[in-house]
Amino acid sequence: MKRKLDHDNVPAAEVPKSDGGPSFAAFGLDPRLLRGIAAAKFSVPTPVQASAIPSALEGRDILARAKTGSGKTAAYLLPVLQSILKRKQQHTSVLILVPTRELAEQVYKAVESLSTFCAKDVQAVNLTQKFSDAVQRSLLAVSPDIVITTPGRASLNLNTLALSLDHLSHLVIDEADLVLSYGYENDLHVISKTLPKGIQTILMSATLTDEVDLLKVQFSRDPVILKLEEAEDDRGLLSQYVVKCAEDEKFLLIYVIFKLKLIKGKCILFVGDIDRCYRLKLYLEQFGIKSCVLNSELPVNSRIHIVEEFNKNVYDIIIATDENEVLGDEEPETLTAGDTGTEGGEASNGTLETGSGGIKKLRESPEPAGEDDSTRSKDSQRKKKRKNTKRDKEYGISRGIDFKNVACVINFDLPTTSKSYTHRIGRTARAGKTGMALSFVIPKEHYRKHKSTTFPTTENDEAVLAKIIKHQGKQGKQVKPYHFDMAQVEGFRYRMGDALRAVTRLAIREARTRELRQELLKSEKLKRHFEENPGDLQHLRHDGELRVTRIQHHLKHIPDYLLPKGGKRGIASGGELGHVGVRKVSENRIRKARMNNRTKGKGKKGAALRRKVDPLKTFKAKAV
């Protein structure tokens, strides 16, 4: 059956109708956008879309608060695209500011998806990609309709006159509460000076903080404030658990959890720093557990590709660092002067310095007495090398990036603030799906009892946990304690020790260097080849073994005598976790015992079978 044509000779879109609620067609959007919505498989508007789109189409400024994964990107892109198609101007009319490069790429792909059927009339540019200045000027010279960038990159192009905002009609600031936290105050001030009067401003945020209030005063005019609370049913989708354990037991439990497959689905592990990231990856490799690394040191093309492959279920485990922790109005717990923390036997003394962007650096304090000059010189040289390491300041993992179908978030190292904890666990239990957050907490009495696995911030885990429980309690959520039966996993401890001894400081440094070298090569391939051949994308593995440690093949297999008496269910004495799948092993053991009896010749059938296959009893020969 042929569809009707509108006044622009465009077929009407077939958009699914909602049950009693608003539909996308009711907003009066361009038919080409409705076809893009249908192709993107958006069935009905989410609450933030149903509230923001009508006000935005009326030209009102908007300040919307909604949780991550609630559809905020489409909530501001659809009105923006509608205005572009309506005006049909050959000027840059929309500026979208985001805090990170990963989020910029995500927004750019959302623009491409929604404007699939009107691509000739909508031109968008992502300036966060590592283009040269000449290439950026050439991209901006054609006056694209939409410019997606970070405030720093926008300020730079405004100063060089490559970007013109004279005909701007819409300014969008996505993840507004993070923009100032990432240190873009001066850049936003430069942008505000060049904005023409009367433009429409849309601010999207997951929380309403003092930073968002500053942006509202600076850019908005009597905005419509939308505070979209979580539905009551959504509160039960996320299960939060806390495991109190010793420092080395973190590594023991993470080995047991993944090797015995106690957690089903995809998982994100948050660790304290980049070295800790590679230590955990090398440790899991000893047991044949594959994982990929995501941190600010890797090239942006590789980071984007890792996220895409994770969303395509190519990888199951990502070990991520969160250098730019989100602090908001809360100050992190700090270490007292002279406190020490070690990672792999390496001392790192001092207190944590903080700023608007989170933990900045570890301030050095006097070395403890008893160390010789050579040790101090080596440590100082090592610290200088680390300080010189280039990291992407526009990197952020706990917010903004769209991870899909994350079953579990594990805080291997607890964050320093409850605000950062909230953003981390927001990676799971999205879009109506259940999820689990599991956090390891080091009690005060266990701090620095196992120096080779100590991490400095864990000294304040109990204080941070108290704030987390209080903050989650205000939202009607519970953080429940969870107890693993350590007696059941005690047999795995010697294997943990063997694996940790193999992961030395030298192995971590070599792994970090090798991974960075490999990812640089992959990043160039991604940049050059896939831009010319977008349909020829083949999976580039980011979870391969680094092979810089001594591989102990016997650790990859678990003998039966190490398994708990009660099966995998016996390890978790506190009940089943949200995404924990425990298999029944009783039937398998019986079946296995029967097979062993048959092969050993026990029973009449087994004896008959052995007589048939015994070559010494069936061999016949004649003497010559």
UniProtKB/TrEMBL annotation:
Domain DEAD-box RNA helicase Q span(s) in chain numbering: 22-50
EC number: 3.6.4.13
Any one of the GO CC terms: cytosol
Catalytic activity: ATP + H2O = ADP + phosphate + H(+)
Domain of life, source organism: Eukaryota
Domain Helicase C-terminal: 237-487
Domain Helicase ATP-binding: from-to ranges: 53-226
PROSITE patterns xref list: HELICASE_ATP_BIND_1, HELICASE_CTER, Q_MOTIF
UniProt enzyme class: hydrolase
GO biological processes: gene expression; ribosome biogenesis
Signal peptide extent: none
Record localization: Nucleus
InterPro entries on file: DEAD/DEAH_box_helicase_dom, DEAD_box_RNA_helicase, Helicase_ATP-bd, Helicase_C-like, P-loop_NTPase, RNA_helicase_DEAD_Q_motif
Composition bias type Basic residues, residue spans: 381-390
Motif (Q motif): 22-50
Alphabetical UniProt keywords: ATP-binding, Helicase, Hydrolase, Nucleotide-binding, Nucleus, Ribosome biogenesis, RNA-binding
One MF annotation (Gene Ontology) recorded for this entry: ATP binding
Region of interest (Disordered), residue spans: 329-393
Residue intervals passing through the bilayer: none
Family the UniProt entry places it in: Belongs to the DEAD box helicase family. DDX56/DBP9 subfamily.
Functional note: ATP-binding RNA helicase involved in the biogenesis of 60S ribosomal subunits and is required for the normal formation of 25S and 5.8S rRNAs.
Record-given protein name: RNA helicase
Organism: Trichoglossum hirsutum
Annotated gene: DBP9
